Amino acid sequence: MSKVMPIVDTYAVGDRGMCRTALPSPPHEPEMKRLEVPVYAQGDLAELITDLRAILGPSSGLDAAEVDVEALMERVRQYNEHNEHEWAPYALADPTRGYTRNGVDDINKKANLLILVWNPGRGSMIHDHANAHCVVKVLKGHLTETRYDFPEGYNGEDAEAEFEPHTMSPKSVTTFKPGEVSYMSDELGLHRMSNPSSSEVAVSMHLYTPPYAAKFGCHIYDEKSGKSHKVDVSTLFSDKGVKCDPWHHHGTA
User: Fold this and answer.
1) So what's the pLDDT on residue 65?
2) Count of domains observed in the chain
3) What Pfam family is a match for this entry (predicted)?
4) Integer Cα distance of 226 and 160 in angstroms
């Protein structure tokens, strides 16, 4: 049987049918409600959100160096991935896309908690994390992480600076099963995530903090040349279990 090669899609670039992350509270809702247990989350998921809010602190500025990564990873690890009745309402899928990004909570505006649904054989482009921390837990299926070093000649400041094009070679490939947690940051390099199955959907929970990518965008990289360009990743397929309105005049289909 021939091997099914993952088909990669841009890292959530301009898909129609999406909405902005970290949406502000409706005018009629007091801001203090953002610190309460979310009424849309149930059981252990609500407790997870409450604990993540406590770890990250009240709504204010946050620098990447101030994040207690170990505490966040341990708390995400403790969440029971078998509670599918809790996270399934946020796992909205679309067979026409490589994967969907579904918002769960913005954690005091200090982080983005998302549920991603990966269609069989599909994945992300190689990308950075805009100097933020990324914690991923597989909830269902399997995810393969392929890591890369930043391209030779990358100066750490301007990802789009001119340099000699060259092929980017993977430095590690790891497949995670349900319940396993991974961590990624720009200090560790670049990565792409993909669903290795040719028939099964994969679902994962992602925590990004600070939410730099949603605010400022990130860079995706061409594996054949190492060249990069900045993309907008502030859009979602759904938010808090509700599919977002079509996003008109925004990028590609």
Assistant:
1) 74
2) 1
3) CDO_I
4) 10
What DSSP designation does 6 have?
Answer: P
Q: Domain holding 235: CATH number?
A: 2.60.120.10
Query: Is there a domain that residue 252 lies in?
Result: no
Using DSSP bridges, classify how beta strands 202-209 and 99-105 pair: parallel, antiparallel or unpaired: unpaired
Output the DSSP codes for 203-249: EEEEEEES-HHHHH-EEEE-TTT--EEEE---EESEETTEEPPP-TT
Which of 220, 228, 227 has the alpha carbon at shortest distance from 164?
227
Q: How far apart are the first and last CA of the chain?
A: 32
List the Cα angle 198/199/200 in 5-degree steps.
110
Task: Give CA–CA dist 218/86, Å, rounded.
Answer: 30
Q: Is residue 11 part of a domain?
A: no
User: Residue 37: helix, strand or coil by DSSP?
Assistant: coil
CB 200 within 8 A of CB 138: no
Domain that holds residue 220: 16-239
Q: Determine if residue 191 is labeled as part of a ligand binding site.
A: yes
Q: In terms of residues, how long is the chain? A: 253
Q: Which residues contact 190 (CB under 8 A, 6 or more apart)?
A: 126, 127, 128, 147, 148, 149, 150, 168, 221
Please tell me whether residue 133 adopts helix, strand or coil conformation.
strand
- pLDDT at residue number 213: 84
Instruction: Quote the tokens at residue 15.
Output: 């898909």
CA distance 249 to 2: 39
Which region, left, alpha or beta, applies to residue 141 given φ > 0 means left and ψ of -120 to 50 means alpha? left
For the record, the structure tokens of 134 come out as: 């990324």
Q: Which helix (H) or strand (E) holds 49?
A: helix 43-56
The pLDDT of residue 211 is 87
Instruction: Tell whether 144 is covered by a domain.
Output: yes
